[in-house]
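Hi support team,

I submitted a single chain yesterday and got back a structure, but I'm not sure I'm reading the token output correctly. Could someone confirm the output below corresponds to the sequence I sent? I've pasted both exactly as they appear in my results page.

Thanks,
R.
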Amino acid sequence: MAYTTWRGVVGCIKPTMRPGGIEELIRILPDGVSLIPLFLDIRKGTVDEFKRAVEPYEPLIARLAEAKVDIIHPEGAPPFMLLGYEGEAKVLKQWEDKYGVPLFTSGTNHVRALRALGVKKFVGATYFEGPINDMFGRYFQEAGFDVLGMEGLSVPFEDVGQLSPYEVYAHVKRSFLKHKGADGLYLLGSGWRVMEVLEMLEEDLGVPVVHPITARSWEIQRRLNIRQPIDGFGTLLSEMPID
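Hi R., thanks for writing in. Yes, this is the structure output for that exact sequence:
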């Protein structure tokens, strides 16, 4: 069955069943762009679980390709970033060749957004702790960035969405000020609800912010040849830079 809309259809694969991210994305997408969301069920947020999660994406990619969507976006930074920058690229190429539909992951999207904003050295903030943050950092280093820090916040994986945006603001600001010389700020993960503080962070810290929801909206527009800026969520969407 073919799904059509006047500006394009995006198939998204969400790694978790948690609410929030898809609603936020829909609110900031231009009219005429439709989403078909499918879901995995990642629950624990451990390295082992993320490593096992890549293979289950493929049957869902096949279903979306059958639906004749214009783009497929397998979301979730950790599963693909743990493959490494080159390893992720190989998997994406295999899937694009096999299914004939353009794909982008959270990682490739964030790399593209950082480059479009001219960011070379950044501080990252996550809601993970421990060695997994080093793995995230290595992914971006392999992509050519200078990662000054990838600072985690202590919170149970299933409770991330319960954090207030102001708690996250405080964590992100502390993380940024801990390191000197950054020309950008990166927030990993769609689980925390922070849309209302993104522009505040840019104003207070004086650097552009890349966040998964706004970066996703930006890339969907770029992929569908749309340019509809939106204010209130940071430079990436208000200026719509071309990479």
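A quick pointer for reading it: The mean pLDDT is 94. Let us know if anything else looks off.

Best,
Support desk
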